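S.,

Sequence below, as promised.
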Amino acid sequence: MDKTGRRLLFRLGAPLSPLYAFIMRMRSKAYASGLFASYGLSRPVICVGNISMGGTGKSPHVIWLCRKLVKAGIRPAVVSRGYGGRAGKGPLVVSNGTGPEVGPQVAGDEPVMIAGRLAGVPVVVGSDRVASARLAISRLGAEVIVLDDGFQHLRLRRDLDIVLIAATRSPLQEKVFPGGELREPIDALCRASCVLVTRAECITRDERQTLVREFGPLLGNRPVFFSKNRVSEIRPLKEKENRKFTSPRTAFAFCGLGDPGSFLATLKASGVRVAGHRWFADHHKYADRDLCNLAVQAQKAGADALVTTAKDAVKLAGLDVEKISLKILVMEIEPDVDRELWSLIDNTLKRDEEEQQADR
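The prediction came back faster than expected:
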């Protein structure tokens, strides 16, 4: 859905926001009281989630977290809903740690992209994330479950809840769906272990301090961390082209993201001259005609290459990219995260291990 459609939906849905907010609060209380069943696991669970409807950069931070765990000698597995795919209840193993075994049309674009970036880390999808996590532990040897986009999935208990909020899209003034971008009321942040403000390069130090003060009461004064986006590389879509790769003079950007503006800003900050852009709906399924139309638009704008995101790139793999004369490039993002967040994660895992040893 484009911006115009979303604005119309939110305007029409605004009267229903209080009702939806009430339902979400009652649901949260039902899980907290035990009225709705929730399930713990034999291994720690770290959730990387949202309170708004996408566009905060979850996938790069899931990848960052898994790499930190691997470096610490811990074997993680990613468990995701698999939005946009056909996995259904699952569980479906996207990767056993050796790369994606199914495509985005089955598993969803983000899990396939994550699986392609994380050597040695299993990825499992399905709407039943309890079953997916149990499979990751019993069959794939996971020592920590990284729950991707699971802040509202209260059926699976977690040891740490990291909620991502984009610095450029503060949820504090937003309404709850269907009148706005929030998945649940802002006071749901009381369940969070911490908030991670992404795209912090876009705001000043004073603005950071303002966010800390604003989120503090909602979090019960639990910590607020920050991360900055940086471009790790801009590579050809076809890896075999790496040897003859040269940076484009000008590029035409395209993507299907919840927050395409952040992609454009990061791309420009990397030094690429952007001649124009085309935005698709989040999780857009590309067809050959899309590439042909993009090539025409890019050539009219004077661009000598197309550039997109890693999330979009996985959905271009099955298309006939040789049809178009322009090279397709992929911008890879790597977050620069406050070191204190890893300290919180590390301490949580050590405490969990100590408690398990005491119970034996």
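The chain has eleven helices and twelve strands.

Coffee later?
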